[in-house]
Amino acid sequence: MLHIGQYNTLKILRDTKVGLFLGSEETQDDDVLLPNKYVPKEFHIGDDLTVFIYLDHEERPVATTLKPYVKLNEFAHLKVNYINKFGAFMNWGLEKDLFVPFKEQARPMEEGKRYLIYCFMDEKTNRLVASSKTQQFLDNEEITIENGEEVDLIVSHITEAGINVIINEKHRGLAYKNEVYDDVKPGIRMKGYIKNVRPDGKIDVSLRKLGVEAIEPSSQVILDELKSNRGFLGLNDNSHPEDIRTVLKMSKKVFKKAVGNLYRQKLIEIKEDGIYLL
Prior knowledge:
This protein is mostly beta strands.
């Protein structure tokens, strides 16, 4: 059986003028064409090939060795190539663009701009389509993560409250703006850590390690800053949190723990005007 919108590992069944036909030796009725332009230089009948399967311009399954920017049931940040009376068509790395019907656009898309989308199978047409109404594909009722767990994040959108993220391509989460120290944009993928799964299903996320695990990396950041500044850093416990955030990209709470860690190891000296490297 062919899996549309996914990678398939298939056998080379036969070589023709138009390309290789791939499939299973048991069910050759379910074969698919790999056009000549994607055929490897060396191959043998019976070899296994891993290809991506999608529908061509005539809605027939076709194989390619190109790597799409998104697969079935995944999120991606894609660019709109053009728009017509039916909807938007996005560049997903393949010859045929990925279609976004007008009804699946959270707001009217514009040519040349990028949008976060979800790729799914339209049950009515049996075609791969995309939607920028991404919230409908996320579920915060059946939570599959725990506090403190490292997770994969995709930045969804940015609001006054903070950075809205997609967690493990399953759940909605929020990283509060005052805890974000790096420049982030929609579509960026990164690692994160679960701070709190609330009873109402809302999930608080940190873009940095939590608790004791956060101290060592933060201590190293301070050491590196000291070494690059001739052994002096004009920050201490009395410094304004915004100054610490600007210089070190960490909260004052993490800064104090990291400084304490370095002091206990006798690597620094703390004075009124700042921190000195020993």
